[in-house]
Specification:
The chain is α/β, with parallel strands linked by helices. The protein is built from 14 helices and 16 strands. Bound molecules: pyridoxal-5'-phosphate.
């Protein structure tokens, strides 16, 4: 089947993400979206199980968000944020500060999650420099973690995960350790901190769910241990809520389930409900105050050209309206309950290692996925857009998904596993 002309022309000029371009199978041409559907050029419609990399929390083309963008588009699509401010950004900062726990009050806007994490790292290191403390320039992060693809953020991802392994010799060295899930790992972390604590600027973690590292869950207690240890050793604590923020784990922010307030938090992904690129790095008052100084070098020297883009901030404000007026967290609970019930049917299928659900995240972990391309094709043949990676097949649907659409997704997962589509046999 031939694709549209723009695809025939463009495929020899485009460079795709995370893709070996030598052997890439043709990607699918998407032409429009609506609700939880992705419409393809040949007329097929796929039910989206992953909300476009976890962003489209209110479904696609939500009229309230589209209206907000249109209104902002005719008023002022963009203006630089140096020396100028505007209503969408300042209103958004005020609203985020009001929603976030504790004194997470000061918001720095950027245009992608990786950059928000870079800014968090930069703030954490400079925090100590500004306070006259030298030598605290390393991060402590965790195995299974993922914080972005830029150079600084690659260095705080799981080093064995493979995605960035080629760069090992080039990256700055940080401490990557096991999450303190039990007495042994907690003690190991504590002894690491008592040895090297005075080199560490901040502890960095994805709270409750390590997303791109494999949808690995941990208990809120882990986060309380990290807060206690960070306080004991005088280290900053950064929560990367780029995946978990905005309801995904069942509360508006994952940190609320542990009752822990980090010193710095990063947000992106669902911040604009998947409509425009935007990210935020939010700090507590004491962090911000370390940058208030008569020394001009003590300012935060960062300023992406498109930071606080008004269209993106207008989207984010419209998304927050929907969280205020619609029963989103209740929908998350219902989605979680339905996924837990329906995915449980996978538990006894061959090749299934684990089935787990938290909030609106449902995961079927397999022993192996021998032929990833075959598995992806089998899912598409069933009319669903689900992107397995490593050994997991997961769902992170829009919170507005209907029960029958969700059943279609869970049913597709159960069927491809039952068919053995993830296995090696049956050359098709
Ligand atoms: C996706 C993600 C990032 C990186 O965000 P980009 O917008 O892709 O740069 C960082 N941290 C977490 C937890 C993420 O899920």
């Amino acid at each position: 089947m031939r694709g549209p002309q723009w695809m025939d022309n463009g495929m020899s000029h485009i460079w795709l993400p995370y893709t070996q371009m030598k052997t890439v199978l043709p990607p699918l041409p998407a032409v429009s979206t609506s609700g939880c559907d992705i419409h393809l050029a040949d007329g097929r419609v796929l039910t989206d199980g992953i909300a476009s990399w976890w962003t489209a929390c209110h479904g696609y083309n939500h009229p309230h968000i589209c209206d907000a963008v249109s209104a902002q588009l005719s008023r002022m699509p963009h203006v630089m944020f140096g020396g100028l401010v505007h209503e969408p950004a300042l209103t958004l900062a005020t609203r985020l500060a009001g929603m976030l726990p504790g004194d997470l009050e000061r918001v720095f806007f950027t245009d992608s999650g990786s950059v928000a994490v870079e800014v968090a790292i930069k703030i954490a290191i400079q925090y100590w420099i500004n306070r006259g403390v030298s030598g605290r320039n390393r991060l402590l992060a965790f195995r299974g973690g993922y914080h972005g693809d830029t150079l600084a953020t690659m260095a705080v991802c799981d080093p064995e995960e493979g995605m960035h392994a080629l760069f090992n010799g080039v990256l700055p060295q940080h401490y990557i350790v096991d999450l303190p899930r039990d007495q042994m790992t907690l003690q190991r972390l504590e002894s690491r901190l008592s040895e090297s604590g005075d080199e560490i600027a901040a502890i960095l973690v994805e709270p409750l769910i390590q997303g791109a590292g494999g949808m690995l869950f941990h208990d809120p207690m882990v986060l309380r241990h990290l807060r206690t240890l960070a306080d004991r050793y005088g280290i900053l604590l950064i929560f990367d809520e780029i995946f978990t923020g905005f309801g995904r784990t069942g509360t508006m922010f994952a940190c609320q389930q542990a009752d822990v307030v980090p010193d710095i938090m990063t947000l992106s992904k669902a911040l604009t409900a998947g409509t425009m690129p935007l990210a935020a790095t939010v700090t507590r008052t004491h962090v911000f105050e370390a940058f208030l100084s008569d020394n001009p070098l003590h300012a935060l020297m960062h300023g992406p050209t498109f930071m606080a883009n008004p269209l993106a901030c207008a989207c984010a404000n419209a998304s927050l309206d929907l969280f205020e007026t619609q029963p989103r967290l209740q929908q998350v609970r219902q989605i979680g309950a339905q996924m837990a019930h329906e995915l449980a049917a996978c538990r006894h299928l061959p090749n299934v290692r684990d089935v787990r659900v938290m909030g609106a995240v449902g995961v079927v972990e397999l022993e192996t996925i021998a032929d990833m391309n075959r598995l992806k094709a089998a899912l598409i043949a069933l009319g669903v857009w689900i992107r397995p990676f490593r050994t997991i097949i997961y769902l992170t649907p829009s919170f507005t998904i209907r029960p029958d659409e969700l059943s279609r997704l869970t049913d597709a997962i159960r069927r491809v596993i039952a068919q053995g589509a993830a296995g090696k046999e049956a050359a098709s």
